[in-house]
């Protein structure tokens, strides 16, 4: 990794030019270690988040249809340890318990999702198979079906929900669902699948926005946005124009892919240039990146009342020329760049998640500059841990939240229009292809207990103090919050560890009894036969919305 160094005047000019010359943010400053004590604007909204499949459980209860994640997770080898979200946190049955946790934290909002097949078991108002018959987000027809689902949500819940998010992290839906196949529905269409899925997602978002705008806004007075997840990309060599351009290209292929059409009507020029040129060099007649018609550009542009931003980490970026060829084309090789990390960055959990707080401020300022300083709600930000043992004293999560929230405060001081923050996540939960091996929650969930009890981690007390103070009053007080949070969790941690040990002992006895019973293997075999491996009622995804609850702080 190349060492960080001071910018020269020439380098400053190149980077600022590349990032569209932000007037209020000084890109030359390297104050990564500084901490700013102060408070957030009056009315700033504090929250936490979750999603339907990751927390609800009850996958086949009360008439719910099958989602693509139900089908995907039931296929052997798709999820670590072959785990599923069939029961997860049992949030479907523990609504009152979880609302009590939100009240305890004194949250202003809670971001969660509505499961499409729980409202419409087959996906639409008449019987149809969206993924298996039509190919899901590869097919333009899904735009209208998604609009039907959203319209039903507005009809049923719009009198209470005032902040709707059409899609959460569409990058993941497109790339991991239709390019790499790591996520449901597990489709692998290298070089085309992600672009086509994203194209239809953007059209679906715009259609839903217009539906709300023409049919519901006057009556319900709500807002429609989209939540985009993105890492920050920082040039490895700040004296290299190629690295500077590669770093911006990284962010444009991530956030700009969706934000630029929604705010400006078309894909980022750099995406059109790179994908188009590579498509021609491959001998293709047209670009693998789809195009919008003039009418579509006009229809899509401006369909965002607020922008949700999910952010977790940062990468150093350098220029890298990738080889050409039909078989080698992919979303990743189209970018002509390499991602690097500093080995000194903390990485307590997910292999991709390094704690790099200063990248958050830079990303928020990038959004301000590129898209006219839109209203922003941070809809996901948090850190995971990978631990075999029970641990409630999550000091590293306290540090992560402290540093990242402070960088957001600095961004607001820069003039970025951030109105709210959502800690990710309220609970430990099913983490997609990682199963239950990673934990993001403020509250620990004991998944081995059928009742799925929740236990507060130390970060609960720390985050609660940030909320009640609306920021960071002074150094002495903030340090005191941390000390008290860790002290409080120590006794709870010992108690939970004791309970876990008892459960482990009981599990070992139960395991012995089960393996001794030949009926067990017969039951497993029957289950595999009865539950179809290819589902005929596969629905696509959940529509995410931001619901402002608990407006009164207790």
From TrEMBL:
User: A Gene Ontology molecular-function term?
Assistant: galactosylceramidase activity
Question: Keywords for this entry?
Answer: Glycosidase, Hydrolase, Membrane, Signal, Transmembrane, Transmembrane helix
- EC number(s) recorded for this UniProt protein: 3.2.1.21, 3.2.1.45, 3.2.1.46
A GO BP term here is:
carbohydrate catabolic process
- What class does this enzyme belong to in the EC scheme? hydrolase
State the InterPro entries in the record.
Answer: GH, GH_1_N_CS, Glyco_hydro_1, Glyco_hydro_1_AS
| Annotated TM spans | 529-550
Name the catalytic site residues: 380
- Signal sequence, start to end: 1-22
Q: Which reaction does it catalyse?
A: Hydrolysis of terminal, non-reducing beta-D-glucosyl residues with release of beta-D-glucose; beta-D-glucosyl-(1<->1)-sphing-4-enine + H2O = sphing-4-enine + D-glucose; beta-D-galactosyl-(1<->1)-sphing-4-enine + H2O = sphing-4-enine + D-galactose; a beta-D-xylosyl-(1<->1')-N-acylsphing-4-enine + cholesterol = cholesteryl 3-beta-D-xyloside + an N-acylsphing-4-enine
Protein family (similarity comment): Belongs to the glycosyl hydrolase 1 family. Klotho subfamily.
Q: Known PANTHER family for this protein?
A: GLYCOSYL HYDROLASE, LACTASE-LIKE PROTEIN
Protein's UniProt name = Cytosolic beta-glucosidase
Q: Which organism is it from?
A: Anabas testudineus (Climbing perch)
């Amino acid at each position: 990794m190349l060492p960080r160094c001071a910018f020269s005047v020439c380098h400053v000019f190149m980077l600022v030019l590349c990032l569209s010359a932000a007037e209020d943010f000084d890109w030359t400053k390297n104050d990564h270690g500084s901490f700013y004590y102060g408070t957030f604007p009056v009315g700033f909204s504090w929250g936490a988040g979750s999603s339907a499949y990751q927390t609800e459980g009850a996958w086949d209860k009360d008439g719910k249809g099958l989602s693509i994640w139900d089908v995907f997770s039931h296929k052997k080898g798709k999820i670590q340890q072959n785990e599923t979200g069939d029961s997860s946190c049992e949030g479907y049955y523990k609504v009152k318990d979880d609302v009590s946790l939100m009240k305890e934290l004194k949250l202003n909002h809670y971001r969660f999702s509505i499961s499409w097949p729980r409202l419409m078991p087959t996906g639409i108002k008449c019987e149809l198979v969206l993924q298996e018959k039509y190919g899901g987000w590869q097919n333009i027809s899904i735009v209208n079906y998604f609009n039907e689902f959203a319209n039903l949500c507005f009809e049923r819940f719009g009198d209470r929900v005032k902040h709707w998010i059409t899609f959460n992290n569409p990058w993941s839906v497109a790339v991991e669902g239709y390019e790499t196949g790591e996520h449901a529905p597990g489709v692998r269409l290298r070089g085309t699948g992600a672009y086509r899925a994203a194209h239809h997602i953007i059209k679906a978002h715009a259609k839903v926005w217009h539906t709300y705008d023409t049919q519901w806004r006057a009556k319900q007075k709500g807002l429609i946005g989209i939540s985009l997840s993105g890492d920050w990309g920082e040039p490895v060599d700040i004296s290299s124009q190629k690295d500077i351009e590669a770093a911006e290209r990284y962010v444009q292929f991530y956030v700009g892919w969706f934000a630029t059409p929604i705010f400006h009507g078309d894909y980022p020029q750099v995406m059109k240039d790179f994908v188009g040129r590579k498509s021609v060099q491959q001998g293709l007649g047209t670009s693998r990146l789809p195009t919008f018609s003039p009418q579509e550009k006009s229809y899509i542009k401006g369909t965002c009342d607020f922008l949700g931003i999910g952010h977790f980490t940062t990468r150093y970026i350098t220029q890298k020329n990738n080889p050409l060829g039909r078989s080698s084309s992919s979303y990743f090789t189209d970018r002509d760049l390499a991602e690097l990390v500093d080995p000194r960055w903390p990485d307590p959990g997910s292999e991709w998640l390094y704690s790099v707080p200063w990248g958050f401020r830079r990303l928020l300022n990038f959004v301000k500059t590129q898209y006219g300083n839109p209203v922003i709600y941070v809809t996901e930000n948090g850190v995971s841990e990978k631990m075999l043992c029970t641990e409630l004293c999550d000091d590293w999560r306290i540090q992560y939240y402290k540093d990242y929230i402070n960088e957001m405060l600095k961004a607001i001081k820069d003039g970025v229009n951030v109105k709210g923050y959502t800690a990710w996540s309220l609970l430990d939960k099913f983490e997609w292809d990682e199963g239950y091996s990673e934990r993001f929650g403020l509250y620990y969930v004991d998944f081995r207990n059928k009742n799925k009890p929740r236990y507060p981690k130390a970060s609960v007390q720390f985050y609660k103090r940030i909320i009640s103070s609306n920021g960071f009053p002074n150094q002495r007080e903030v340090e005191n919050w941390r000390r008290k949070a860790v002290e409080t969790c120590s006794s709870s941690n010992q108690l939970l560890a004791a309970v876990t040990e008892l459960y482990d002992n009981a599990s070992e006895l139960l395991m012995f009894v089960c393996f001794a019973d030949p009926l067990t293997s017969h039951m497993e075999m029957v289950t595999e036969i009865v539950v179809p491996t290819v589902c005929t009622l596969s629905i696509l995804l959940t529509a995410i919305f931001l619901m402002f609850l608990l407006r009164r702080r207790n």
